[in-house]
Amino acid sequence: MAVSARDYWDLTKPKVVALIVFTALVGMFLAVPDVPTWVQIRTGALGFLGIWLAASAAAAINQLLDAKIDAQMARTSWRPLVVGKVRPWQVLLFAGVLIVISMTILVVWVNVITAVLTFASLIGYAVIYTVYLKRATSQNIVIGGLAGATPPMLGWAAVTGLPTSADWINASLLVLIIFIWTPPHFWALAIFRRADYAKAAIPMLPVTHGVPHTRKQILVYTVLLAIVTLLPVAVGMSGLFYLGGAVVLNVVFLWYAWRMLDPPDELFSMKMFGYSIVYLMALFAFLMVDHLLLPWVR
Predict the structure, then answer these.
(1) For residues 174 and 178, what is the distance between their CA atoms, to the nearest angstrom?
(2) Model's pTM, two decimal places?
(3) Closest CA to 114 of 143, 156, 146, 85
(4) 43 with 70: CB under 8 angstroms?
(5) Extended strands (E) in 7-89
(6) CA distance 134 to 163
C-alpha cells in the first residue's frame, strides 16, 4: 500500500509544530527593533522554513521511537506508524531528509548558530527526551521541556545571529516563558490520560505521585508563569499593550489552576489543557502586536 502525503503530514504532528514555529516567528519579530530590512525578511523566511522542517523531523522521530507506547494509548493509537500506514524505515528516511534540508538551509542561507541551536533542540526532544527522560523520571517534561522551549531563541538567532548579551538575555526570557508553561500544560493532559500512561509504563507525575500532588504542582508552576510573563515588561522588551493582555491571560490561567485543586468533573483538566494552548498563542501574539503595531502605547 502506497504511503499518502497525508500520512507523512501526520508524522510531523502539524498542530504541535504550528505552535512551535509561531513562537519562533514571534522571536524573529522581537529581535528586530525597527522595520526589518529586505535581508532580514529573506533570512527570517529561510530560518522559519529551516526551523519548521527540523521540528517536523523531531516529531517524526518521536513517533518512530514511541510507536509501541503510542499503540497502547487512545490519544495516539491512530498514528500512521501504529496502524501500519507507513513502515519504520520510511519514517526514518523521511525524518532524515527533513533534517538534511533543514540543516542545509540554516547553515548555508541563515547562520551557523541557528543551525547548531536547532540541531541541539532536535536531539534534545527526539532523542534525550523521547528515549531517556520520558521513560526515566516523573520530571520528564520539566527537564525535557527545555528542548521544546527554544523556538523563540531559534527565531531570534535566525535574524540576528545573537551577537550581544542583550540578544541572548531577551531571547532567553521567551524561552523561560515556554519552559515554565510546559508543566501545567502537559500535566493537565496527563491527569486526564493517566490510565493510558500507567498502561504504557510512562512515569508521568499523576501516575507516580498521584493526581492531588500533580494538581498542586500545576498551581505552583502557573503562579511562577504569571510572574515570569511580566519579565518582558520589566526589561523593557514589551510595553503596556502586552502587559494588559498578559494580566488577563494569567488571571484566567490562575483561575483554572486554582479550580483544578477541586475540579467540577473529570473533563475539567482537558478544559485547562485546551486553554493553555490558547494562552500561549495569545501571549506571544500580544508580544508581537505590542512590538510591531502599537509602539505608541509602549
Answers:
(1) 7
(2) 0.96
(3) 156
(4) no
(5) none
(6) 34
Q: Is the dihedral of CA 242, 243, 247, 253 positive or negative?
A: positive
For 86-117, b/e burial (b = at least 16 CB within 10 A) is: beeebbeebbeebbeebbebbbeebbebbbeb
pLDDT tens track for 214-232: 999 999 999 999 999 999 9
Encode burial over 58-78: b for 16+ CB neighbours within 10 A, e otherwise.
bbbbbbbbbbebbeebeebee
Whole-angstrom Cα distance, residue 270 to residue 74?
15
| Residue position matching grid coordinates 498578559 | 246
User: Measured between alpha carbons, how far is residue 126 from residues 58, 142, 225 in Å?
Assistant: 5, 15, 25
Q: What is the pLDDT of residues 124-176, one digit of tens each?
A: 999 999 999 999 999 999 999 999 999 999 999 999 999 999 999 999 999 99
Residue 3: CA count within 13 A, CB half-sphere? 19
Q: How do residues 275-284 score in pLDDT, each as one tens digit? A: 999 999 999 9
Give the architecture (CATH level 2) of 1-163: Orthogonal Bundle (1.10)
From residue 146, how far is each of 94, 117, 154, 177 by CA, in Å? Answer: 25, 12, 13, 10
What nine digits make up the cell of 149? 522551549
Where are the chain's structural domains? 1-163, 165-298
